[in-house]
Amino acid sequence: MSDFHCWAADRIAGAVGSGEVTAETVARHFLERIDRLDDKVGAFLQVDTQGAIEQARAVDRDIAAGKPPGPMSGVPVGIKDNICTRGLPTTCASRILEGFVSPYDAEVVKRLRDAGAVILGKLNLDEFAMGSSCENSGLGRTVNPWDPDRVPGGSSGGSAAAVAAGLATITLGSDTGGSIRQPAALCGVVGLKPTYGRVSRFGLIAFASSLDQIGPFAMDISGVALTLSVLAGEDPQDSTCIAASVPDYLGTLEGSLEGKKIGIPREYFEFEMHAGISQCVERAAQVYRDLGVEVVEVPMPHTKHAIATYYLVANAEASSNLARYDGVHYGHRNQEAKELVEMSCRSRSEGFGDEVQRRIMLGTFALSSGYYDAYYLRALKVRQLIRQDFDAAFEQVDALLCPTSPIPAFRMGEKVEDPMQMYLCDIMTAPASLAGVPAISVPCGFVEEEGRSLPVGLHLVSRPFEEETLLGIARAFEVRYEGSGRMPAEVL
Amino acid sequence: MEYEVVVGLEVHAQLATRTKMFCGCPVRFGERPNSLVCPICLGLPGVLPVVNESAYHMSLRTAVALGCELASFTKFDRKNYYYPDLPKNYQISQYDLPFAEGGSVPISTPGGEKSIRLVRVHMEEDAGKLVHTPLGSLVDLNRAGTPLMEIVSEPDLSSPEEARSYLEELKRMLEYLEVCDCNMEEGSLRCDANLSVRPVGQKELGVKTEIKNMNSFSGVEKALTYEAGRQIRTLVAGGVIEQATLLWHEDREETSVMRTKEHAHDYRYFPEPDLSPIVLDAKKVEQIRGELPELPRTRWQRFQADYDLSEYDAEVLIRDRALADYFEDLAGRVGQGKLAANWVTNQVSAVLNERKIPVAECPVSSDRLSELLLRVDSGDLSKGMAGKVFDSMLGSDASLDQLIEKLGGGQISDPDTLRPLVEEVFGEQAKIVEDIRGGKDKAKNALFGKVMGKTRGRGNPEVVRGLIEELLASGS
Amino acid sequence: MELEVSTVKHIAHLSRLELSDSELERFRGQLMDILTFVESLADLDLESVQPRVHAVEVTNQFRADHPHEPLGTEEVLAGTADRQGDTFRVPVVVDTEDVLED
Ligand SMILES: [Zn+2]
Questions:
Q1: For C60, what's the count of Cα atoms within 13 Å in the CB-facing half-sphere?
Q2: Has residue A370 been placed in a domain?
Q3: Class of B415-474 per CATH?
Q4: pTM for the full model?
Q5: Which of B265, B276, B278 to mutate to test the interface with C (most CBs of C within 10 A)?
Q6: How many domains are contained in chain A?
Q7: A426-474 tens-digit pLDDT
Q8: Interface subset of B 69-128, CB within 8 angstroms of C
Q9: What is the extent of the structural domain holding C37?
Q10: Is the link from the previous residue into A155 a cis peptide, with omega within 30 of 0?
Q11: Total of domains in chain C
């Protein structure tokens, strides 16, 4: 039996592109693993066995015909189920969209297909990407491959768990306040949130439009670098996607860190934090010092306001973005209602889970007459201050370093009843989302909890559109970290 | 007590773009329901809007022509409300930073020229169409996402007549600017009104009502007349006006109350995060300014001055840009503005109205009509005869001479009637007669022409030629 | 932050959500917790701060006025629970206003 699930994406693409292995062989390997292991993990909401094999065969045919292979030829990928895929259900893990089939592909999906990637299926998430544990999914239950009693994080829990369990080489997630980075940290994989505007959002089902950004998960940095090269770049369908040149992120990974400076934002360490996590992060900082990188403290004075700001901005936008799910044109409709308003209200209350309804209410409140200035407008102003914190810090340093999550994977059900506790999972990641800057979570150690080893993520943040720098800095750590590539024993 | 009426209008004009405001669906009227819809204007999950550049430029052109102050920075906002013809359940519009503010529309009133100030002009997307039936409401999204421009006036209008003049002037401007079809029946131009009354001399405005669902210019005038009357009667009878939104019913010629008290809608406007703001491009504005057509009001004044036309005639002519162009071409060829104006406002307009066709399809081109008018101007054709000729021109491409001849109505073939005229010409043109007798045969044509002139073209050419030969031969 | 039940009801209605009395009460408590938490923003002096809507500063993004192919009526209507002919059908619209129930 082969070990394709331990191969990096570029190795698979190279082998498939050269004809050494067929895309179909690789695809079947992953489909078999999904078949065998996903009952336990629950990463996938939908596995497209037939479609994946057909795509793989098409890739093999093109290569056999001598066509130049795409950069992700035969790489098996999974897509978070809030990203539209033509012909496959796209549900946002919500009952309101159960059975919905998008008539179009998201731009990122199109780019993946064009690059030769093979789409295995759709991955679980917190409903409409609202949550930090994947427990808010209305359609599936995903566990952390390192401990099935614990959450994989969220909202892109399925994407992180699939990579951690070797069920896909690359997965796509979306990050609004930490939804890629936090589950990456909790599942011990690499997760990148690109700069806002780096990757097209066309086809990403909006949660908070000014914060949402699609990004990749992989076992290692080369995988996210390769994928970003494929995903990034201007899209005329998305006015907020920038026409900035896209470097070869994979080719520039091994650059020197000479002259680079890394900042430690003191305020991030003032939050309550698992002791083992701060030790892991401190050790990571030491790795950089040992490499000759100057590590300095930088002030980020508005950090403590980020969560409040984030929840107001994100949910205000969400309340409007989710207004379209009213049962009129598509999606779940209550059939008993005799009157329109009743029909919409019932359809929505039946279709949306608690957390989604709570956030819609919060957002509606923040925008409503009499409260707009005190809540939404105020939050937009604090957002500006938070961005200014980053701008000032990046005048001094090239990247910021902190933990991705103050806590390791928590037990299922532990935070479900207390929304505020769940929201605090984003304290490390939400500021970078508000600022729109790129950030990555890289495995940097383990903590022991109840006899289990739980992964810890290192959070690195860089200047807008300088993913190249960010990935280079992350890579320098990765090659020196002995735990890189480690997978949970149960799924090997 | 005497009351005065205070009216402000909100006009929605559909921009004459090929595609919708935020997606590439074609904008067309009267197609199969839901056939001009894509994921974007259907509001499917995951879609994003992108601004139609033509819609923005047309809006700019309008604002420049209206003399608005253009915002150096403008943005789109979401207006949140639930309605089944609004697929996203929010409308992309502009709230606190419209792209244009101020400006004015000049109108004529019995008391002279008046300038109606504008509050603002902004861009937004249209909703779809909803038809109510006993078994439910039916939604067609073909119109959803059509680009609209909303033009809001100050309450500067003092009567229903002024409101109508304002609308007519605005319509003409939009047509001249080629930014809107202005077809009220098809809904490409729509209008809501705010109306209040107050005792003459009182400064504060009275309580206003909003009137919707007026689908024609005359409907606007009638609805406002009706509502002004109702408000005044209410006040005179000691009643109070309640803030309300009213629906105008064209068939019954009365309003009904749509909602009684001004319910404060909570639209929860906020900046549209999916669209980037627009920064004004000064160069583009200069280009637009340079390319502005002559506006109807200017043309109206120029027609009066240049062609010595009455206000009324000039007004009739400029109402339609193409008709005004036709007139100007005709007047240039004929050199007689008044004569040209008469013909265009009477005969030509009658044909267009009767056949319900645009000027471009008029069977008699300005070029052809000018030939006819030149004959009228020179006295070669009587007015009555010219009218008949014009009528026959409508159904025939034959030359003017052929048509005149064919009409025969004027042809004089009696030698006894014609002989005195020929003799007269012989007397007047002794030199030509001498030339002919000296052997210049060709000069006969000149004589012939003169005689025909005297008959206003009605002389039977053969008889005339025969008489000329006869007289030449007689030597007298 | 204290929230009246009537306010929560109003917000639920604006949000087009139908909540039972117990749900209303539960959401009221949770929303109050969240609103109390976000009140920390009130301590900041924001007088001279410009609100930030977008993460990136990009302006003047347009598309050319070129038509694309629409979906086609059947595909447009494919997802709806009720149609009549070529139109979407919804229950009758009784009142379009966001009127408070109480
Ligand atoms: Zn469309």
A1: 7
A2: no
A3: mainly alpha
A4: 0.91
A5: B276
A6: 1
A7: 999 999 999 999 999 999 999 999 999 999 999 999 999 999 999 999 9
A8: 75, 81-84
A9: 5-41
A10: yes
A11: 1
